[in-house]
Amino acid sequence: MEKKKFTFEQILNHKLTNLFSFIIRLFLAFLFIYAALTKIYLPVDFANAIDSYQIVPNWLINFFAIVIPWFELFIAFGILFKYKYKENLLLYSFLMMIFSTFIVIAMLKGLDIECGCFGENSTKVGLKKLIENIGIIILSLFLLIQQVYFDKIKEA
Amino acid sequence: MKWILNVETLRNIFLITLFVLVFSFTYNFFSPKGLNIFNANVNSMKKVSQSTSNEFNVISIDEALEFFYNENTIFIDARSPSDYEKGHIPGALNLSTKEFDNYLETVFSLPRNKLIIIYCESIHCNLSHELAVKLKNFGIENIYLMVEGINEWKKRSLPLNKY
To answer: Which fold has domain B48-155?
Structure first.
């Protein structure tokens, strides 16, 4: 009996894939909503967390502490309700890459600090956190690729 | 790549960014917890009062130094015993926040009529604040937090004990 081979397009369009995408979309959105709210609630703690990485110049710390949580919140809602979906997925992946880069730099510097990801509930910077972030980036890129593919089909 | 980064996508990203910037700065302006946009130096003194509904008094290194010469003051080092041994304020008691349950005898023996100043590593360290909350739950008042921590104390070459 011949094994049925799925094409890349069929995999992306499959019911199970769509269910998987739906679950990932909810997960990514609520992750960022939670992260954003913890930072908006305690902006000074988040500013101090940024400072602890010793990367951002002093005069820019508060700027990022003010802006990043709202970016996370709006991106999360954009993904949740599929508004400017592709753009928000791009921003999501980009933000996660920036956060991961900070973690790598902190690890190379040997800093024993908290990541600042979820306010007071943040975990320490380290390999485990980095792997988690890479996993999240992969999930967001998967959704992005799927959306790009759907857009391509629409335009064809 | 054109399917990902075309003109329309870039325009939308720009608009999202602009919207977020306007919204976040407006919120920050009206929020009681709003930050001073281009000056992070004011953050350390706000830290404790924002982190909990129980406010603790925050003191600077200079103020702590004045209390250092006052016999009615007790300094408490909230770090681990190994960090404490590497260097601490002379006369400071070690009461490790993470091993709090092992220090209950010390907690019960703390005099209630003295000023207690708690410190840990630096403003990025939360141990002093966590310890203050625990001590307050044990009925200890008169707690001050030296939020700049032992790092700032050392930078100023102030008295230090090592084992």
So the answer is: Oxidized Rhodanese; domain 1 (3.40.250)
